[in-house]
Amino acid sequence: MVLANSTPALFDPLVLLGLLAIAILSSLVPHALEMTVLRQITAATFGVLMSLMPAVAAAAGLLLLGEALQLAQGAGIALVVLAAAGAARSG
Question: What are the structural domain ranges in the chain?
């Protein structure tokens, strides 16, 4: 495997297998899980859960990557969470 020039490394079968695994794990598996959950809960509840995904992603970014949010970003996420809670409460 050549690291300075990445073109030969891309055609290495082991690298291609790793890239295929990443593609499956990063897109197919989450989509399949969402579709499975959608069959078991109401569409309204699913919509509320999907609206909370940016807040979860921001929390993961803060905890795992140390990425801090700006005040406007935090306020926007807080408003989305409040709206989701209000929608869940009103049914």
Answer: 1-40, 42-91
